[in-house]
């Protein structure tokens, strides 16, 4: 089937499913269409199955719980999939970039490339197809003035033409359908940034040792770097060790503190983590960027680097424990969950930084390893209905949950809050009860007004109950 016919069919489905609609079942159906299109071109471009699965999984998660966060994960998976469908060998972060650029300006880039290389232009249209398209366009142009002339000549014909209702065709709808056509055209016939892909393939995960022995000036320079780096890492280790000692004393005393004090302690720990990890990575990348990795006298600076990484891991554990205490006392919020996620990613970053030094890896290794880990962590996190999970934990495990915060979350937790307000009527104010009832009504009304394209798991569960 011609790529333009496929693109037109895709554009029509794109318009039917998404125009003036919120997200739900339509993203699942659209994802299946994209999957089938990628299958249809598998002879030219191998299907990246792991990323297809991630993309379909993200679509299902949006259907289950259509929050802004999960919609973001869905589009992230889509752009990565587009990049991987063009070249499966590209790094993950580069695949995402290729996917974004391809969906936006692939046609412009391909046109520019053909203009620069006119001899390489492929003949995509047969003469018969070209003549047919020209004929259709000319006929459409000619029909308009003749129709106007015939309308003036015959009142019956004029009434017949006037009775045709084309109000369903709107300018925004036409532009939206055109956008769908461009998107599907770029999926079927993408732009291949060959030079960028080639450059990425040339970047090794390992640093290459020098082919010749170090000269005397080079050895002097490496000794200087070794001394300078050792002093810096020793100073940072002493500072961090002192900080950890005071942190341990604070945790050991288990002093009763106010909510604001506890919050400040947790966030100060996170800020310290952010600063120390950024410093660690930048300093390590600077000193271990080249020949120092292969200098035989680098044992001291390596040992101090390993100590630095180990102390930062201890700082991660201490901060995790403080945040855990905070959650036990006051319940979950998105900020507190964010702290846990950041600590996990920080721990992984520290491990990859250690591997970079121990195994003489390159900066590209850090980018590739950490981007893969972050990608799959985000996908896994999309499987959790966060608003419902936060609400469930707080009303089940916290004696006096912050109802104002829970009411301020998305509407998906409205039924949980409604049941809680009925069961604990004496514990909530009349204003809070009113807000909960309004939130529940708004949620139910919005769900009942959804069209079939916007259906979510809520409609499926409701139909079963009925």
From TrEMBL:
List keywords of the entry alphabetically.
Membrane, Transmembrane, Transmembrane helix
- Stored Pfam families: DUF4153
**The keyword Cytoplasm belongs to this UniProt entry's keyword annotation:** no
The UniProt entry, under InterPro entries, shows:
DUF4153
Spans traversing the lipid bilayer = 23-41, 47-64, 93-111, 132-150, 170-189, 231-250, 270-289, 301-321, 333-355, 367-386
Q: What is this protein called?
A: Uncharacterized protein DUF4173
Source organism per UniProt = Flagellimonas meridianipacifica
Taxonomic path = Bacteria, Pseudomonadati, Bacteroidota, Flavobacteriia, Flavobacteriales
């Amino acid at each position: 089937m011609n790529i333009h016919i496929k693109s037109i069919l895709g554009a029509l489905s794109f318009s039917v499913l998404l125009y003036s609609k919120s997200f739900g079942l339509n993203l699942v159906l659209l994802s299946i269409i994209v999957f089938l299109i990628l299958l249809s071109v598998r002879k030219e471009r191998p299907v990246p199955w792991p990323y297809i699965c991630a993309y379909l999984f993200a679509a299902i998660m949006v259907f289950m719980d259509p929050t802004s966060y999960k919609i973001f994960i869905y589009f992230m998976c889509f752009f990565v999939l587009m990049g991987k469908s063009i070249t499966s060998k590209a790094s993950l972060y580069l695949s995402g970039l290729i996917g974004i650029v391809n969906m936006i300006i692939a046609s412009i880039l391909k046109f520019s490339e053909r203009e620069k290389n006119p001899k390489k232009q492929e003949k995509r249209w047969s003469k018969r197809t070209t003549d047919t398209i020209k004929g259709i366009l000319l006929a459409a142009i000619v029909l308009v003035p003749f129709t106007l002339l015939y309308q003036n000549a015959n009142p019956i014909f004029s009434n017949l033409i006037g009775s045709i209702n084309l109000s369903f065709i709107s300018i925004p709808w036409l532009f939206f359908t055109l956008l769908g056509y461009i998107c599907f055209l770029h999926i079927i016939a993408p732009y291949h940034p060959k030079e960028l892909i080639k450059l990425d393939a040339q970047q090794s995960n390992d640093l290459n040792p020098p082919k010749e022995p170090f000269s005397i000036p080079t050895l002097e320079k490496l000794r200087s770097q070794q001394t300078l780096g050792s002093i810096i890492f020793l100073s940072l280790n002493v500072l961090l060790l002192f900080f950890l000692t005071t942190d341990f004393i604070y945790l050991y005393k288990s002093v009763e503190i106010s909510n604001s004090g506890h919050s400040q302690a947790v966030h100060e720990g996170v800020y310290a983590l952010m600063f120390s990890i950024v410093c660690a990575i930048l300093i390590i990348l600077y000193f271990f960027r080249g020949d120092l990795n292969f200098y035989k006298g680098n044992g001291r600076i390596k040992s101090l680097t390993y100590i630095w990484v180990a102390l930062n891991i201890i700082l991660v554990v201490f901060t995790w424990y403080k945040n855990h205490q905070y959650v036990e006392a006051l319940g979950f919020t998105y900020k507190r969950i964010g702290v846990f996620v950041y600590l996990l990613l920080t721990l992984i970053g520290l491990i990859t930084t250690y591997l970079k030094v121990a195994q003489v890896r390159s900066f590209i290794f850090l980018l590739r390893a950490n981007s893969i880990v972050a990608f799959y962590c985000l996908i896994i996190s999309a499987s959790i209905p966060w608003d419902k999970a936060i609400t469930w934990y707080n009303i089940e495990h916290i004696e006096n949950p912050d109802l104002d915060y829970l009411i301020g979350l998305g509407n998906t937790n409205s039924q949980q809050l409604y049941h809680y307000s009925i069961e604990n009527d004496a514990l909530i104010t009349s204003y809070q009860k009113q807000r909960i009832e309004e939130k529940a009504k708004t949620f139910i009304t919005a769900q009942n007004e959804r069209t079939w394209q916007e259906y979510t798991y809520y409609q499926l569960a409701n139909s079963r109950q009925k």
